[in-house]
Request: fold
Amino acid sequence: MQDTKELPNLYVVDAQDWKGLFTLNQSFLSHFIFRGQSNYKWKLSTSLERHITTLHSDSSWKNNTHREYEKKMLQEFKWKYPIYEQHNIPKSKDDIEWLSIMQHYGVPTRMLDFSKSLYVAMFMAIDGCIEEYKNASIWMFNKNILTIHSYNSDKDRTQSYISDSDLREHCYKNANSVLAGEKTEQLLFLIEPKIGFERISRQQGIFVMPAKIDSPFEDILQKFCNIKTQQEIRLQELIGYSYRHSNPLDKIPIIKINLPFRYKYLITKSLEQMNITAEILY
Reply:
């Protein structure tokens, strides 16, 4: 892997030697969040995006369909939720928390599920992979870039330095202002829900939310971080890089790791030894 300032924005790793994933530097991994997908050809798309695509033509992106769906589903969910839950009820204007709960219950939202654990994402990827797909994939997003970019985009910010916890809170507030219609920048927000659920806790869940809802997620990702600028590397190169640069900061925005289907059984058994199974996660 090259060590220059002009690094590709997306590294694609063909994990033929998949056991090497377990040797990646843990300090390096702590700066990323992870999403597993059963087919390496699938695009990154939100459940709301996929839901509306099945109901409408591509023109739905131009006529505010997604925002109208989100608004109506939010209103209906806020109205019905207190019937089933009497205690953990968010404030009415805390739409980020409402979307997080909706996501938990399977309602289509603009949020994309990630995990803080590479191994949970590995299980999610390989569990649903079938021979027809050939490869599953794990997407790794640098969470430093998500939060810092959101902070730097805020013209009203008053601090030149901000702690990690305050940075996440700042990101959370910015995301809420987006849902209130105050901002429309091409941003991606890292969302950590404040109300926890057992399944989210087990999966070490975290969300990525686009500021704009009237564009496909990958289009926003393209503008936020040019994923067409990519480089294929070997897993051993990534392992070596992880030990030379345990704190990648903004050096590597995105990594995509492809897992061959033929290793599904071996990967599943290895994760089972770590107590990462469908029984535990679901």
